[in-house]
Amino acid sequence: MEFEHLKGKLPLEAKKAMRWQSIFTHSLWLLATAGYFLLVHFFDWWSIIGWISAGLLVVSFIIYTIIAPNVYMNVYSYEVTDTQIDVQRGLFIWYHTKIPLVKVQHVETLTGPIFRKFDLASVKIITAAGSVEIPALVQRDAEALREYIARLAEVDDEDE
Q1: What is the pLDDT of residues 102-153, one digit of tens each?
Q2: Residue range 37-75, pLDDT digits in tens
Q3: Which residues fall within 8 angstroms of residue 21, CB to CB, at 6 or more apart?
Q4: Which of 17, 59, 71, 148 has the most CB atoms less than 10 A away?
């Protein structure tokens, strides 16, 4: 079954930011693995655990730094209409979430240090039943989308 993508796609900067997040995480993993090998040298521990960790590190790096950002860009889409918010995501399991605007209680933008470097932010839409995030939008687009959803859903701006 083929699914039709929605209009909103993630910007190309999102791919770079995802890669840098992965590189940072894998750098920490590499330091931990190197530290384990140092301990193996001094305390005569089993080195097989370090080799397993190094092998998993390489496989994880390839998947999450090289492959996943490309795939994620192709399988994530969103659309905001006058009555609802649609978010589609997934590779093997396809999630299609529809949120009626009347159910929206709170809308916020989120950004971390890596996203700030690439001028990106995420929009988080919160309802009584949970939340949905539209990740890695250009900062000004994320803020405009937050304001647009808040206006349509008649949500008060809590920053004021």
Answers
A1: 999 999 999 999 999 999 999 999 999 999 999 999 999 999 999 999 998 8
A2: 999 989 988 999 999 999 999 999 999 999 999 998 888
A3: 114
A4: 17
Sequence-ordered list of residues with C-beta below 8 angstroms from that of 136, at least 6 positions apart, any chain: 10, 11, 13, 14, 17, 18, 115, 120, 121, 122
> Does the pLDDT at position 5 exceed 90?
no
DSSP alpha helix (H) spans, the chain: 12-43, 48-61, 68-75, 113-117, 139-153
**78-153 CATH:** 2.30.29
Write down the pTM of the prediction. 0.80
* Domain spans of the chain, in order of start: 12-74, 78-153
Tens digit of each residue's pLDDT (9 = 90 or more) over 96-107? 999 999 999 999
Three-state SS at 109? strand
Relative to beta strand 120-127, strand 130-138 is antiparallel
Query: For strand 84-89 and strand 77-80, is the pairing parallel, antiparallel, or unpaired?
Result: antiparallel
CA distance 104 to 86: 13
Q: C-alpha distances in angstroms, 146 versus 99, 111, 126, 152?
A: 14, 13, 11, 10
Residue reference for tokens 């089993």: 46
Conformational region of residue 113, where left means phi above 0, alpha means psi within -120 to 50, and beta covers everything else:
alpha
